[in-house]
Amino acid sequence: MDKQPDSLAVRLKSADRLAAAELVDLYYEQIYRYIRRMGFGCAASEDLTQDVFFQAWRHIAQLRSDKMLRPWLYRIATNAARTQLRKKRRDTSLEEDELVDGSSQSWEKVENKELLLQLKKEIDNLPTKLKQVVLLHYMQHLTIAETADAICTGQGTVKSRISRALRKLRKQLEIKNEKNNE
Questions:
Q1: Taken in order 163, 165, 167, 170, is the CA torsion positive or negative?
Q2: Torsion of CA 102, 107, 111, 116, to 10 degrees
Q3: CATH annotation of 109-182
Q4: Burial, 106: exposed, middle or buried (Cβ in 10 Å; 0-12, 13-18, 19+)?
Q5: What is the torsional sign of CA 126, 130, 136, 138?
Q6: pLDDT above 70: percentage of residues in the chain
Q7: Three-class SS string for 121-177?
Q8: Which of 87, 99, 112, 127 is deepest in the core (most CB within 10 A)?
Q9: CATH number for the segment(s) 1-92
Q10: Region 19-31: what's the mean pLDDT?
């Protein structure tokens, strides 16, 4: 792992305000995109992202030394999103260009824009628990272990949710393709 986040965690725990600014600089965009992909609008995503960093600063003492900083931030983001979703269910879909960003090489192999849009729509329609693991593992590039830490569950659960999500996505895309071929 990168040594910078480890030293950053130590500095954060010692209440270093410059470290807090560095934390925001390093992770703001990633956390914002994750929350946005969970189905929140731009303004709500900005508010939730700011709240994630406020909560991280406020509860920095809870960061255990054996835990990595990045999954801990995603856990805070996941909990903030869950809380907001419980308060008010939103039916906001993602903007077309947000699924594929310039920094993500995962989606470069998908050449067919229609297939990509179908995939985006099907990801949006997944149950929340399945959608979270897909977004964290494939879109945010967290490992299985980091994803498990971020959503407070075991690695086996993450693997099974990824498997279920991929089966559902594959099935839905096959159904759509069959309808289009008729």
A1: negative
A2: -110
A3: 1.10.10.10
A4: exposed
A5: negative
A6: 78
A7: HHHHHCCHHHHHHHHHHHHCCCCHHHHHHHCCCCHHHHHHHHHHHHHHHHHHHHHHH
A8: 99
A9: 1.10.1740.10
A10: 90
- Start and end residues for every CATH 1.10.10.10 domain found in the chain: 109-182
Single-letter amino acid, residue 6: D
User: How many CB atoms sit inside 10 A of residue 82's CB?
Assistant: 14
pLDDT tens across 101-158, in order?
A: 444 444 444 455 666 777 788 888 889 899 989 988 888 888 999 899 888 889 999 9
Q: What is the number of other CB atoms lying within 10 angstroms of the CB of residue 117?
A: 12
**CB contact at 8 A, 75 and 151:** yes
Instruction: Return d(Cα 166, Cα 172) in angstroms, integer.
Output: 10
Structure confidence at residue 50 (pLDDT) = 92
The reported pTM is: 0.62
**Quick one: tokens of 55?**
């909560």
